[in-house]
Amino acid sequence: MRSWAALLLLAAPLTADAADAAIPWPFPPPPPSPVTLVMVGPKAIRVRLSAGYVLPCDSSANVKLLDAKVQPGTTKTWMASTYCFCVEQTHHDFPDVGWSTPRQVCRARGCPWAGCGYTNDPLTITLKSDPPK
């Protein structure tokens, strides 16, 4: 009887691994969709935009999309399959220093499949050069 119990304990991890092998992990990324950065305001500011979940935006775990001075009225678009993006900016009072707290901007959440998660809808990130009040 003990030999059967030992056999079941040894076989259980094998069957669990075989079942998990059918599920792709990590899940494949979605197809790329547009991410647009729009800058409004009276003066140029510096912006850091990266694809990824890690704060601050210049982390090596993220993919840098932009780290530059951005003029008012600028619109830039990238194709990306990432769900969340990290954004940092300066304001017109101190356009080269005084970085804001990094924040995450993510695509909308929905239930396109059996499980709920982020959608792959186009994303627009609007930045203002005026400091927050």
Structural notes for this entry:
The chain has one helix and nine strands, in the order H-E-E-E-E-E-E-E-E-E. The protein is mostly beta strands and 133 residues long. Mean pLDDT is 81; it is low at 4-21. The protein has one helix spanning 2-20; strands at 33-40, 45-51, 63-70, 75-80, 84-89, 103-106, 109-110, 117-118, 123-128. The strands form three sheets. The protein has a four-stranded antiparallel sheet, with no helix packed on it. It is 14% helix and 37% strand. It has one domain (30-128): Immunoglobulin-like.
The assigned structural class equals: mainly beta
Number of strands: 9
The average pLDDT score comes to: 81
Shape: globular
Number of DSSP helices?
1
Q: What order do the helices and strands follow?
A: HEEEEEEEEE
Gross CATH architecture: Sandwich
The biggest beta sheet is recorded as: 4 strands, antiparallel
Distance between the termini: 74 Å
Strand portion: 35-45%
